[in-house]
């Protein structure tokens, strides 16, 4: 009798385990196309089209290691599809369009296209004034005293802070109580006026206006001093798609 109970228990565990694994694998098959379809991270400079990028990226982390601004992260399992692939979270740290584009040079697989040789070659996405109602410039609201807290917190969390990061903090200091022009002032490309400028708004304030020189680096999103950035980057969207086709 005891032997039969042990056998029944083994059989129960065996088939229960197989059943759970089947559900998990089946769920992966069912849901992975949806996870893939929703994948829309901001990729590093030079990233090839997303499906090709996911196929080519070997998840080596070389791009992350050479980034002097600590802009690049590797996706963990909690991020869904593309675990281990590099991405940029512009709410924490945008890309600063390094002149030699070292992340591209470091990529050994072609996931970051080596024809991207300078900032003007970068096409990560495009900036959009997504929440104009909260824009400080449009509301004639001065820059708050704590606007740099987020950037300072990020820099403090980095183990090996670079001189470039310290220079960035120094550049963005001193705006407290002034009219907000931070998104335009921080634009890192060599000709920032080709990407963004502050223009007069009908409500009496000013607003950021985006031009076709925008590379979608996300620096403007990082520095935006509102609780939820008023200006955001749409990954893998061109200026034509966002502004010309949508009118």
Summarize the structure.
The chain has 247 residues and is of the alpha+beta class. Helices cover 36% and strands 11% of the residues. It is built from nine helices and six strands, in the order H-H-H-E-E-H-E-H-H-H-E-E-H-E-H.
Main attributes of the structure:
247 residues; alpha+beta; two-stranded antiparallel sheet; 9 helices
* Count of alpha and pi helical runs: 9
Strand share of the residues? 5-15%
Main beta sheet, described? 2 strands, antiparallel
Helicity level, as a percent range?
Answer: 25-40%
Shape: globular
The tally of beta strands, per DSSP, is 6
Distance between the termini: 79 Å
CA gyration radius, whole angstroms: 23 Å
Ranges where pLDDT stays below 50 over 5 or more residues in a row are 12-37
Strand order of the largest sheet: 1-2
Overall pLDDT score? 88
What's the helix-strand series?
A: HHHEEHEHHHEEHEH
The computed structural class is: alpha+beta
């Amino acid at each position: 009798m005891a032997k039969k109970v042990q056998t029944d228990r083994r059989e129960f565990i065996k088939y229960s385990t197989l059943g759970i694994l089947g559900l998990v694998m089946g769920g992966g098959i069912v849901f992975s196309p949806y996870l893939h379809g929703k994948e829309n991270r901001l990729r590093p400079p030079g990233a090839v089209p997303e499906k090709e990028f996911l196929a080519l990226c070997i998840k080596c982390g070389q791009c992350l290691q050479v980034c002097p601004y600590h802009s690049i992260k590797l996706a963990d399992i909690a991020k869904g599809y593309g675990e281990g692939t590099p991405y940029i979270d512009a709410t924490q740290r945008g890309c600063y369009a390094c002149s030699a584009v070292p992340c591209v040079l470091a990529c050994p697989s072609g996931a970051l296209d080596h024809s991207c040789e300078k900032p003007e070659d970068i096409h990560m996405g495009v900036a959009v004034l997504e929440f104009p109602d909260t824009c400080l410039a449009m509301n004639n609201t001065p820059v708050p005293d704590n606007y740099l807290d987020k950037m300072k917190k990020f820099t403090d969390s980095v183990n090996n802070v670079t001189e470039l990061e310290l220079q960035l903090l120094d550049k963005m200091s001193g705006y407290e109580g002034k009219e907000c022009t931070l998104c335009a002032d921080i634009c890192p490309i060599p000709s920032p006026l080709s990407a963004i400028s502050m223009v007069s708004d009908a409500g009496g304030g000013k607003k950021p206006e985006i031009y076709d020189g925008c590379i979608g680096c996300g620096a403007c999103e990082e520095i935006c001093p509102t609780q939820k950035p008023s200006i955001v980057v749409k990954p893998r969207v061109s200026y034509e798609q966002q502004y010309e086709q949508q009118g």
